[in-house]
Design goal:
The chain is of the alpha+beta class. The chain has a single domain (15-289), classed as Jelly Rolls. The protein contains seven helices and 15 strands. Strands 3, 4, 5, 6, 7, 8, 9, 10, 11, 12, 13, 14 and 15 form a 13-stranded antiparallel beta sheet that branches. Helix 2 (25-34) crosses helix 5 (100-110). The chain is globular.
């Protein structure tokens, strides 16, 4: 089926092999619902291999001005939610993963009726983590910040890192609901994807600082899907970060930062803010730290 690029040109390029993945739905549904610690699935080869390589190659460098700085005690990574600024091939794939046919496939896979994509990519889009970056274990925010009747239901994360080595870390960890142990790990390898439920206790992250070379980054696309919330009493909550067993000394700092994020989320919702303002502040602080470490040199 032809699709239209942002320039108005038509293309017949296949961005998702529906025949392949729809034919596997009975098997995948069963795996998704039975996997521990909560419903999820790890898919190797979500897209055509050559297409996945093109996506990785199209990723903007980490010093590009378009990146949002997600840098505080509980995370150190970059993000970009501005669909209009995406490289063309990345934008087209993101659009496909939000198309009615794909969302219908995802709804059948997860068993969640009425799924909707988020055209604003709130908190999602392109993600990139440099050496030393991390994301503490957490359960995601459960309501859209600007559409308060949208309840977040599942995530799709597509990794785009050819040649990633296990010793560098960066594996996505899925923890049990009591936060006692990690029950699944997925390395961020090229064209590997993870889809999982977004519940109050779907704890996940990559909490150890990654140790990839300075010239390498951990790249991924993140898509979040919602349903209409019909219960007027449901208010949802912001991202809930948690410490791992044995990290008791971190727990108060993780909690304080979590509360700060919750306050920011409330202001964001009430004032209609985007993450760009906070990103500019965090970016200035990050550059100042780098300048202090290098004696004023930032290059």
């Amino acid at each position: 089926m032809p699709t239209t690029t942002p320039t108005g040109a038509e293309t017949t390029e296949t961005l998702f092999d529906y025949e392949r993945w729809e034919s596997r739905l009975p098997e995948l549904e069963a795996r998704y619902r039975s996997n521990r610690p909560y419903p999820h699935i790890h898919l190797d080869g979500l897209l055509d291999p050559e297409l996945a390589q093109r996506l990785e190659a199209a990723f903007p460098a980490p010093d590009a001005a378009s990146w949002i700085q997600y840098k505080h005690f509980n995370e150190n990574k970059l993000g970009n939610t501005h669909r209009e600024a995406f490289p063309e091939i990345i934008g087209r794939v993101v659009d496909e993963l939000g198309s009615p046919r794909f969302v219908a496939w995802l709804s059948k896979l997860t068993g969640i009726a009425g799924l909707m994509p988020d055209p604003t990519l709130e908190g999602g889009g392109m993600h990139q983590t440099e050496r030393g970056g991390f994301l503490n274990l957490h359960a995601d925010f459960t309501m859209h910040h600007h559409k308060t009747h949208w309840r977040r239901r599942c995530n799709l994360i597509l990794f785009l890192n050819e040649g990633w080595e296990e010793t560098w870390g960066g594996a996505l960890e899925l923890w049990d609901r009591e936060m006692k142990r990690c029950e699944a790990k997925v390395l961020p390898l090229l064209n590997h994807a993870v889809i999982f439920n977004t519940d109050d206790d779907s704890f996940h992250g990559y909490p150890d600082a990654i140790e990839c070379p300075e010239t390498v980054t951990r790249k991924s696309l993140a898509l979040y899907y919602y349903t209409e919330e019909t219960d007027p009493s449901y208010r949802g909550r912001s991202t809930a970060y948690r410490a791992r067993p044995g990290e008791g000394w971190k727990a108060p700092l993780i909690w304080l930062d979590k509360e700060a994020v919750a306050l920011y989320s409330t202001l964001k919702r009430r004032l209609g803010l985007s993450d760009d303002f906070a990103s500019r502040v965090l970016g200035l602080l990050s550059r100042r730290k780098k300048s202090d470490k290098t004696g004023g040199k930032t290059s």
